[in-house]
Design goal:
It is elongated, with a radius of gyration of 22 Å. 22% of the residues are buried. It has 2 helices and 11 strands, in the order αβββββββββαββ. The protein has a 7-stranded antiparallel sheet with strand order 1-2-11-3-4-9-10. A 4-stranded antiparallel sheet has the order 7-6-5-8, with no helix packed on it. It is of the alpha+beta class.
Amino acid sequence: MTPATETPPRRAVGAFLRHLAALVGLLWLTFGVCFGVMRVPDTAMEPALHAGDLILYERRPRQIRGGEVLVYEAQNAVHLGRVAAQAGDVVAITPDAALMVNGSTVLETDIYFATPAFAGGVTYPLTVAQDALFLLGDHRTAALDSRTFGTVPTAAVRGRVLAVLRRQGL
């Protein structure tokens, strides 16, 4: 058959397949390159994020700021953590479980747990190396974070959390 004698349903199927391919390509570009979606793996970020919540994160953030929640890889697992200190900062944890950065106690109004140092973890004071971050979970008494495995290289950061979809009511 020549294109002039092609039946309309065949053209419609071809157009549908082209549109479907374009949609799949756009979704891959959006969620494979620009953004990521994942479930919160554990309770390390409670009460801000609960295990099972769905998060949308921006891949490859250009600039990372203190207090932002990041998705990162450490010890062969994916974690979530809040930026507590960046390159050049000096971190210490006091005997009364207070976080100090550059000699000042950090006032965190949204954190409801003390910040204890973990036995067998890093030693303080700790100077954060260039291209590294000191990340803490919000559930400070139970989170596996930089107090346990040290600073996180910025190359291990998968992205910055943008939005949360609560698992309640799903």
